[in-house]
Amino acid sequence: MRDDKAWKHRKETGGQPGQRKAVLFAGTTEGRLLAAYLTGLGCRTVVCVATEYGRDVLEQDGLAGGTDGKGPDDRLLDIRQGRLDQKSMEGLLEEVRPGMVIDATHPYAAEVSENIRRACTAFPHILFIRCLRRESGAWDNPVIRVPDVRAAVQWLAGQEGNILVTTGVKELSAFCSLPDYRKRIYARVLPSVESVDMCRTLGYEGRHIIAMQGPFSMEMNLALLREFKCRFLVTKDGGKTGGMEEKLEASRAAGVRTLLIDRPKSAGGISLEDVKKQIKEWMEHER
């Protein structure tokens, strides 16, 4: 989603100092791709990630070393790690003075996205864009749609059998209310110390913590479902980029029931390719 008022303001006023700087809120595949795209165009970019794991992935992709050759501090990419609230985001934007802010956080990070949007309203010169991956759409195999994690837990409370949970570590505490959750739940989380520690704090141990980096193939999903004799899969709609199709194919092949947590209501957004087009247009306009 592009802030057209900001776009119009920039054309009328000629922009503000630091107009070829961008702030990118990442933590997703789209975020990593956009970081590479921005630096490839020569745009100085501050990339914000919440965790050490997010920073490590960017650095593993070789995105921390790009330069523009214009001075001693010539890095094109500046990675900032840490969870930010709206006030902290406003402070960051005041410091960096970017011409563009891109929200490429997870489709389910509704609170974070809203904080980013609100922080940008204090800076009328900023062009704000929300990159939102497409939903997966219709599927051959039926899914049980629930509005949130709490509803998923309530539905599962009346069922028996093991459960593969792929919703992320933040939602795991909700599943602790299920009978015998330590035996029934197999939690797939990011391979970070923070994620594993949180799992253990909640009572998950050993084989019940699957710390792996996705997205995963159909074969890997199927192997996990069969290995742990799961009857249910709980997931979010991460779209094609997040491996949603592979999850559903695996659940069908394994004969398990899939609980799909609906995306939160959002203010909308545009695809990765459309974001790239707007970045290029913005960069050409600012030259």
Automatic annotation (TrEMBL):
Which pathway features in its UniProt record? Answer: Cofactor biosynthesis; adenosylcobalamin biosynthesis
One Pfam family, short name please?
CbiJ
Keyword vocabulary terms for this entry: Cobalamin biosynthesis, Oxidoreductase
- Reported EC number(s) for this entry are 1.3.1.54
A GO MF annotation of the entry reads: precorrin-6A reductase activity
Bilayer-crossing residues are: none
> Which domain of life, per UniProt?
Bacteria
Which GO BP terms, alphabetically? cobalamin biosynthetic process
NCBIfam families reported for this sequence: precor6x_red
What's this protein's name?
Precorrin-6A reductase
